[in-house]
Amino acid sequence: MPVEPEAEAADPMTHLLGLLACHAAVAALRLGVFDALAEGPAAPEELAARTGAAREPLCALLDALVESGYLALEDGRYAERPAGAGLRGHWGEVLPLWTALAAGPWEGLAEAVGSGVPDGTFYSWLDDRPEVRRRFHRLQEGMAAGLAEAITLPGGTRSLLDVGGGSGTFSRVFCARSPELRATVVDLPSVVAEAGFDGPVTGRGADLGRPGAITERGQDVVLLCNVLHGFTSVRARALVAEAAAALRTGGTLLILESDPAPDAPAERAFQRFFDLNLWHTQGGRLHPSSELAGWAVEAGCTVRLTDLPDHPAHLLLTAVRL
Ligand SMILES: C[S@@+](CC[C@H](N)C(=O)[O-])C[C@H]1O[C@@H](n2cnc3c(N)ncnc32)[C@H](O)[C@@H]1O
């Protein structure tokens, strides 16, 4: 039977150019090329002076970036194009993180897939790379700030447990909205120590990979945002049960997760690589929403699944403890 193609036929040259363009863009970003061009078009001599880079290889780098559409060259002066300007924002966090992952843990992908044993060292790998680690957390903070806008906590919520809450963006946004709300962020001890929580948000260091990591009880709301995908389905299922057990009767568990199959083709393609990366670097997976919902029902909750129109790559599951 003929096989229905699900994607465009692969073009290795396009993939190679994309890989090289990513590395070139990240190099230019680190040299400060895009910051220098934010002030307007510049001749190579000016860019060499502003970045401190050697003129000849800098020109080679700039020409490669012209070819890949990040820069334009007019009358001997380089100017940034929209993709170049984008590197001073969101994409300036995304590309360095993924090029570092591809050049680091992904080097061992064949051995891991071959043996069935993932590398699984993502967070200690991050701890050894402070610049990449900062980018990762800034990326999470940006994403969390956007997602928090799409979420309203149930009326009268006074206690929030933000499981795997990182630097506590959700907790801070929700506490800023409701002066009576108190939040606890549970995350890795190093992350909690660095976040320096104060005021209505407190932190507790714990290893969520270990059974019984969630010890809080009687919470109005428990939040699991972009956390379950970092764990195997066995541990993720147990974490849902632990999170539900931390709720008071009638309390709400909010699970925000990446949608494994969003509608947009580029987002859907990215999720396949994200899923592979999760398995390899964390031992996790993008768990299907039906599985997440089933785990919440098992944990004694009623469940509602909601799309987030402004965040098409995410799903929100609202589970109420019976
Ligand atoms: C993708 S981030 C999501 C952060 C936050 N919930 C948000 O949405 O912005 C996953 C979080 O889980 C935490 N985490 C991962 N593995 C953990 C573990 N074994 N124990 C505690 N926290 C962990 C990470 O430190 C990180 O803050």
Count of individual beta strands: 9
In the CATH hierarchy, what is the superfamily of the largest domain?
Vaccinia Virus protein VP39
Q: What composes the largest sheet? A: 7 strands, mixed
Tell me the distance between the termini. 49 Å
Strand order of the largest sheet: 5-4-3-6-7-9-8
Give the C-alpha Rg.
22 Å
Beta-strand content: 15-25%
Determine the fraction of residues in helical runs and give it as a percent range. Answer: 40-55%
Structural class: alpha/beta
The SSE string, one letter per element, is HHHHEEHHHHHEHEHEEHEHHEE
Report the top-level CATH class of the largest domain. Answer: Alpha Beta
Broad shape = globular
Task: Give the uncertain stretches in residue-range form.
Answer: none
Bound molecules: S-adenosylmethionine
**Alpha plus pi helix count:** 14
Q: What is the count of distinct domains?
A: 2
**What is the CATH topology assignment of the largest domain?**
Rossmann fold
Mean pLDDT: 96
Give the name of the CATH architecture of the largest domain.
3-Layer(aba) Sandwich
